[in-house]
Request: fold
Amino acid sequence: MARYKACDPAASELLAGTGDIEMSYEGISSSFADGLSYEIISCRKDSDDLYIVEIQATTIDFEKLFTVSAEETVKNYGEDNVTDYLLGVMEQKITDDTCETKTIPAQVSVLKMDEEYKIQMDGSLANALSGGMNDYLESLTGGE
Reply:
């Protein structure tokens, strides 16, 4: 988690199941990582090769950032120009440090693989690290 927060591309080496994919911190994703704080709530050994860690991650509230930015984009640039300006408005809100934060619980699986421990990146952890982006996008599609 510390490597992720530091926007270290080598953090991907600590993830299970990502192969040779290097983590990218381009655009607003670096702001979610940079603003991350987390607390370990509990840890339990599930088996010889698996630990389950309960965390609370706090970072930028994606839903609020997105909705406020979308409203401002429509107001300033019109509905026809949302796709051209939305990301820039979101980045400006982050730069202005006007974003609300959100705390999201996650269950993290830590696997022992070849004598090393690796974090299993899954939907729960990705959602927590992105300020609830997965939950918000799922709510827009009706949970599909």
